[in-house]
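Example (one chain per record):
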Amino acid sequence: MTKKRIVIVGGSFGGINAAYALRRKLGERVDITVISRDREFTFLPSLPSVILGWRDPKQLLVPLEKPLARRGVRFIHGEVRELDPEKGEIRTGSSAIPYDYLVVASGAELDYKAVPGLGPESGYTQSTFTVDEAIAARDALTRILAADGGRLIVAAAPGASCIGPAYEIAMMIDAALRGRRRRHQFSVLFLTPEPFLGHFGVDGIGMSKRMIEDEFADRHIASVVNARISEIRPDRVALADGSEYPFDFALVIPSFLGSEYVRNFDGLANPKGFVTVTRELRSLKYPNIYAAGVVVAIPPPSPTPVPVAVPKTGHMTELMAQAAAHNIAADIAGGAQVDGLSLPSTCIADAGDTGFYLSADPFLPPRNKVVHRRGKWARYLKIVFEHYYISRIRHDWPSLHFGW
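Predicted structure:
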């Protein structure tokens, strides 16, 4: 019997979980190839701790080639340049790889061009989505905190989805300054496109609004909601309403775009480049293309005055990858497919001196169950989970989450 060829684009939470799940489900009946622009898996949820100097970034990286090879998965380090669904082929700068099934789990690109002056390379703000960005933000923050005082801004641009790290970083900075007994020398301002604190792009999670408002009040973190950032200047953030906020250090979460090879192909994605899928995570146009994670198009539950996109957490991405793998296995070996969009999500946030545990099932409202917890134990739980997850990527340990 001819083996089916499965190509997975992406080497993060979605891509690696899809590869491991497909090998477990289909064994040697399939050839699996993972294409990633990064040689290493990065545990992205801990990059805010790198910014505060609390974590060595090297501890968060797992080289991918060897663990994938142990499972008989081919690894290609390269950037996908072109997709040809009619031919069933995906192309990098140096080769063309044919497929019978494709899993798009390539995450997103950071849309720094959406706001003039945004970003660490050609702008005036820091960010937290790559190891290099976290290191640059750490160095910039260290310089400011060595001064006699300063104005610190943590913010999210219009259309941002992954706002959780901004909340973490604002509270971590507060905790670090209080630990040094220097909090009174610095102002901390939080600017967000959300209509209220704790909205998170999903109309809030239970009592998250009150919880975050109370936390920020206790920490003296000022905030502006419905903030539409229109421009970043060398020393200030300008909003569309004409207000301006000066800063000595600013970290701004950008909005996301789907990968260019997806955006450039008609019928696969929405105008932002996010793949439009059925509830089984199958492309609406191409039945042998599946998607998982950030690249999946999920409309917000309700409109907001300033655009806020739906986040896809690492937990959600893992569950989507497992669902996509299950459904591809069902296509090949037979069986019922599963819903890959009605998913729960668990988030653990580090606030520096305490932590938050949030769980929503499903992630989008209305929900069957919501859990909120606060305490130092949650902070330590995130650290333990980091070590577990990195080992899991190295060794394909069983998931702690339910899945298929």
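Caption: The first strand starts at residue 4 and ends at 9.
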